[in-house]
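Design a sequence for this backbone.
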């Protein structure tokens, strides 16, 4: 399948995948099933926590199609998906390899709950040549993000999945930042893909939800854990998620186009020391990103030059809003040292190069020139 036909298929899947044939009187849209009580004499026992209402089935099928997976589920949050993955595929004494600098909530789950319960972890820097040396007979999975938050490191998807496959361990990717519009890791050999659907999939900063997609075999192992942990959404939120997914490809392409343009302009700005975006030719892994990404996504980071006051810069922005979440239609900015990475020790932040001058932008769908005018003015106003 060539690039254009792949794109057309994804665009069509955003709109139509998962639809179920309905009586004409319901119209084109999936009706919202509000019931939490169903007739138990029916041939299937339905209950929202069992993920088998109409709204659950439609959204899960759409997400499976978008990721090119055999099966998918929607969870109550991104952490609902991550916790279910670890608790289904590992038991105390088992080991997993985690990419350095995974989302803070994942690290918190590992440190606060899983390690005290006897689960074992090693941290990997993302270099494929080093991965094999971390795998032990107890290793059950390797988990990555790409691009990473907030330094936008890119991990080689094909090589990571191939090494995991050779050792019979499950490869898992948190695809929240990229979305299936930018990259489809299952096509690169990954076994499981998860999302904080709160971000791009929801896309309007008004939903909390998660998703995971993978082989039927793996999803069959994970499904009972999700049901036992009670990680499910109600019909209203599922419908909103379905509605959002119809415009996922449009939104992410516009966000990516805006991000590429802004990253290039930021990189050339006197008040910016560096811009970190996989779409920039100056990015260390630009060639790898070009190979495995269709577009480069809406997330970018940049480091203010030494003469710029970070708090003054944030204060001077008018259109771009400081906010910790991401992936909405509106452009938001965060200072990772005071938000997502505030809990790390100073030494840990220094090791990761996450200082007060580092800014992370979640680029929205607004007009590029309006966004640039705001950023450029705030940068000039905050230069000492
Ligand atoms: C990359 C990434 N993964 C997972 C999560 C967790 O998702 P949620 O907040 O929906 O539980 C987040 C949330 O910020 C995230 O940014």
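Sequence:
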């Amino acid at each position: 399948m060539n690039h254009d036909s792949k794109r057309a298929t994804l665009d069509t899947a955003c709109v139509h995948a998962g639809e179920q044939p309905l009586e004409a009187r319901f119209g084109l849209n999936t009706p919202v099933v509000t019931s939490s009580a169903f007739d138990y004499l029916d041939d299937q026992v339905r209950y929202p926590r069992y993920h088998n209402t109409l709204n659950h089935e439609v959204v899960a099928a759409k997400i499976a199609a978008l990721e090119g997976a055999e099966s998918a589920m929607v969870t109550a949050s991104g952490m609902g998906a991550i916790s279910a993955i670890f608790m289904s595929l590992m038991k105390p004494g088992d080991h997993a390899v985690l990419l350095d600098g995974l989302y803070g909530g994942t690290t918190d789950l590992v440190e606060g709950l899983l390690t005290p319960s006897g689960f074992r972890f090693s941290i990997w820097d993302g270099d494929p040549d080093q991965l094999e040396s971390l795998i032990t007979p107890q290793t059950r999975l390797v988990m990555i993000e790409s691009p990473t938050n907030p330094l936008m490191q890119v991990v080689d998807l094909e090589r990571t999945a191939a090494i995991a496959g050779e050792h019979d361990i499950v490869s898992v990717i948190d695809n929240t930042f990229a979305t299936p519009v930018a990259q489809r890791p299952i096509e690169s050999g990954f076994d499981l893909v998860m999302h904080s659907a709160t971000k791009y999939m929801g896309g309007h900063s008004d939903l909390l939800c998660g998703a995971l997609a993978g082989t039927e075999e793996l999803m069959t192992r994970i499904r009972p854990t999700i049901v036992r942990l009670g990680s499910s959404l109600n019909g209203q939120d599922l419908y909103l998620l379905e509605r959002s997914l119809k415009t996922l490809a449009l939104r992410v392409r516009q966000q990516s186009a805006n991000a590429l343009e802004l990253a290039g302009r930021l990189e050339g700005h006197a008040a910016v020391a560096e811009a970190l975006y996989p779409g920039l030719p100056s990015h260390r892994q630009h060639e790898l990103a070009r190979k495995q990404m269709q577009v480069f996504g809406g997330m970018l980071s940049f480091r203010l030059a030494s003469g710029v006051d970070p708090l003054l810069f944030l204060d001077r922005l008018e259109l771009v809003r400081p906010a910790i979440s991401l992936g909405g239609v509106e452009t938001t900015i965060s200072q990772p040292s005071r938000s997502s990475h505030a809990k790390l020790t100073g030494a840990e932040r220094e090791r990761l190069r996450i200082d007060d001058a580092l800014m992370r932008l979640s680029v929205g769908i607004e007009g590029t020139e309006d966004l640039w005018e705001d950023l450029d003015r705030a940068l000039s106003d905050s230069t000492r």
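The pocket of pyridoxal-5'-phosphate is lined by residues 77-79, 103, 105, 145, 149, 174, 176-177, 196, 198, 208, 210 (CB under 6 Å).
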